[in-house]
């Protein structure tokens, strides 16, 4: 029994062979470099056991194209996020503008409050002057009344009458002046109420602006929350893409390892094919020798055994219990090994169907990823609509602020004109009424309330200024971080471009190697088909040759038995006394027959010796062919080691490239 039949390869040894590892690494490198996608996945790529590495590479390219599309969508999401950040910056700028406008309004309000305080002080001074004038007029009135009374009590003269009339005229003038002062005081009170109403309206407008500022703050918070949510979704989608890429690489490695196992089985079949070719040659030689034996032996009654099995343990025995040779048993073991190889090929097909199911799950995961992408696009559109609504709302607020500014300017113009009129009227006033005291007390209360409101507004403005400074610092930090990231991305893009150029050149070389391997694969498949056909014909011829050898042995046994029988008869006849001529003739014929039979037996022995010599020569040729095959396999293993080194280098470049794509 040969060494090939003794050491049958196990699946573990086939999985860890250098040919498998080198082929898997090279095909992984080529598949990962050729990555680019199609929209519809091909589910029937790994169904047949004869799927070439090019088909697996096409599947890998399709998956990598999907990965590139996902990265593009991630870039689009990042651009949208940057656009949202710019819009948030514009909103922050608008908020700062509103705060500055609020400060201006507050400063104007403070100026107006100071003007009102000055007016109150002037009114107080004028009121005190009017009170003094009123006291003086009362005293004058009392003096005039006393003077008129004394004149009435005393006698009347012309001078006294003239003085009385003049005093009465002065009294009438004073009374008229008092009436005019009362009317002017009423007008002042009405003007004061109007000014108070205007200040209340101004306070309402300020409160409205504060509410609008709060609304803008809430909108800004919502925008930041939306931005954070989009960033989280972006990170989740990136993690899903990384998971799918790792899954794809795992499936590709699995399919490539199975393809390598298939190639190793094919190489085993090719080695067995060489042995079958040698056995076919020996079969032809034996058939020619059998035909020569037939021609020499003549027409004999040959019996064929059609029910003889061709197994390892069964042995066809002749009448004298002669067994097969060792070479025949070896041929049966090769047939059994072929059946085992077929069973292993069926197992590989089952594993390939499992890989196909994994590919289907991968396509379903890719479809789920596209659905998630569509959902992300819908959410981004909703965010854009919300941002547009906020921008329109901000525009409305800005328009309302401009309208408020215009109304404030108009009210200031009206107020300035009214103040001029009041100042002109206040110069004409000489006396004031007691009602002004009540109005002054009310004004003091209003002033205290306005002062409290001013303190609250000042505290709110300080808080707002602190928040604005914090936002500015945060914006500066973000801008510096963005600049650093841009510089790093530029460096990475340059490195990525260099590695891509190197990987493209390496990809072309590996593609040419793969084309050569595919051509060799096709040639080996053709040779396998030829060897299978030759093996079938060899089996038929070999079985027929065994039957003929068996029949020849039976014929030799029959002739030997007949010869023995004739020898016995001759001996019995030679022992009897000599008889007639007919007995002598019969004995002579028997002697001649025995001589002929002995000659035939010697010829058959010589032919058997020649056949044994030919078998030894065929065994020697087979051993030489095995040595040549070992040399060829050593050369192939050296080439496979070189390919393995190149694949490891390429795998390193591919790993760096995948790291760059993830970044």
TrEMBL record:
Disordered: where is this region? 1-54
Supply one GO CC term from the record. Answer: cytoskeleton
Superkingdom field: Eukaryota
Q: Name one GO molecular function term.
A: structural constituent of cytoskeleton
- Coiled-coil ranges per the record? 81-247, 331-569, 594-628
The Polar residues compositionally biased stretches are 18-28, 35-54
Which terms are listed as keywords in the entry? Coiled coil
Protein name per Swiss-Prot or TrEMBL? 10500_t:CDS:1
């Amino acid at each position: 029994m040969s060494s090939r039949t003794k050491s049958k390869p196990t699946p573990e040894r086939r999985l860890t062979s250098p040919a498998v590892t080198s082929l898997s690494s090279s095909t992984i490198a080529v598949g990962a470099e050729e990555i680019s996608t199609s929209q519809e996945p091909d589910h029937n790529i790994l169904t047949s056991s004869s799927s070439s590495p090019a088909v697996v590479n096409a599947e890998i390219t399709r998956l990598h194209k999907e990965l590139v599309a996902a990265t593009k969508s991630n870039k689009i999401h990042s651009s949208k996020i940057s656009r949202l950040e710019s819009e948030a910056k514009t909103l922050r700028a608008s908020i700062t503008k509103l705060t500055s406008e609020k400060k201006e309004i507050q400063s104007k309000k403070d100026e107006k409050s100071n003007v009102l305080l000055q007016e109150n002080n002037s009114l107080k001074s004028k009121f005190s002057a009017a009170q003094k004038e009123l006291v003086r007029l009362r005293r004058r009135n009392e003096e005039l009344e006393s003077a008129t009374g004394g004149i009435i009590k005393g006698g009347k003269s012309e001078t006294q009458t003239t003085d009385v009339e003049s005093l009465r005229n002065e009294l009438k003038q004073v009374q008229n002046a008092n009436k005019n002062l009362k009317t002017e005081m009423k007008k002042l009170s009405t003007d004061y109420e109007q000014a108070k109403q205007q200040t209340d309206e101004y306070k309402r407008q300020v409160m409205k602006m504060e509410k609008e500022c709060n609304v803008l703050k809430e909108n800004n918070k919502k925008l930041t929350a939306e931005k954070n949510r989009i960033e989280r979704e972006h990170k989740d989608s990136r993690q899903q893409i990384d998971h799918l890429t790792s899954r794809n690489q795992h499936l590709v490695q699995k399919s490539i390892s199975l393809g390598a196992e298939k190639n190793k089985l094919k190489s085993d079949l090719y080695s067995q094919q060489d042995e079958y070719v040698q056995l076919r040659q020996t079969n032809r030689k034996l058939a020619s020798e059998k035909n020569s034996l037939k021609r020499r032996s003549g027409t004999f009654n040959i019996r064929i055994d059609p029910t003889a099995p061709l197994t390892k343990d069964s042995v066809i025995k002749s009448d004298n219990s002669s067994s097969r040779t060792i070479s025949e048993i070896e041929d049966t073991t090769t047939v059994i090994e072929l059946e085992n190889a077929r069973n292993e090929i069926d197992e590989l097909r089952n594993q390939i169907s499992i890989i196909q199911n994994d590919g289907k799950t991968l396509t379903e995961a890719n479809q789920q990823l596209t659905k998630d992408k569509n959902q992300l696009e819908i959410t981004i559109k909703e965010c854009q609509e919300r941002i547009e609504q906020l921008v329109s709302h901000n525009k409305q607020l800005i328009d309302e602020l401009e309208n408020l500014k215009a109304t404030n300017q108009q009210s200031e113009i009206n107020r300035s004109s009214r103040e001029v009129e009041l100042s002109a009227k206040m110069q004409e006033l000489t006396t004031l009424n007691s009602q002004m005291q009540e109005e002054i007390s009310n004004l003091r209360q209003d002033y205290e309330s306005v002062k409290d409101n001013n303190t609250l507004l000042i505290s709110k403005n300080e808080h707002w200024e602190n928040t604005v400074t914090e936002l500015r610092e945060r914006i500066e930090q973000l801008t510096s971080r963005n600049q650093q990231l841009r510089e790093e991305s530029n460096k990475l893009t340059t490195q990525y471009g260099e590695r891509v150029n190197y990987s493209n050149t390496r990809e072309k070389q590996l593609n040419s190697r793969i084309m050569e391997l595919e051509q060799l694969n096709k040639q080996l498949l053709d040779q396998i088909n030829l060897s299978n056909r030759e093996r079938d014909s060899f089996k038929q011829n070999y079985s027929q040759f065994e039957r003929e050898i068996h029949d020849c042995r039976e014929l030799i046994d029959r002739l030997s038995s007949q010869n023995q029988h004739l020898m016995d008869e001759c001996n019995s006849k030679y022992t009897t006394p000599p008889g007639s001529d007919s007995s002598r003739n019969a004995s002579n014929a028997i002697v001649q027959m025995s001589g002929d039979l002995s000659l035939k037996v010697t010829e058959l022995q010589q032919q058997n010796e020649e056949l044994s010599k030919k078998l030894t020569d065929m065994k020697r040729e087979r051993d030489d062919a095995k040595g040549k095959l070992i040399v060829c396999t050593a050369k192939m293993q050296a080439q496979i080691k070189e390919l393995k080194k190149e694949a490891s280098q390429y795998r390193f470049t591919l790993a760096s490239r995948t790291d760059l794509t993830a970044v």
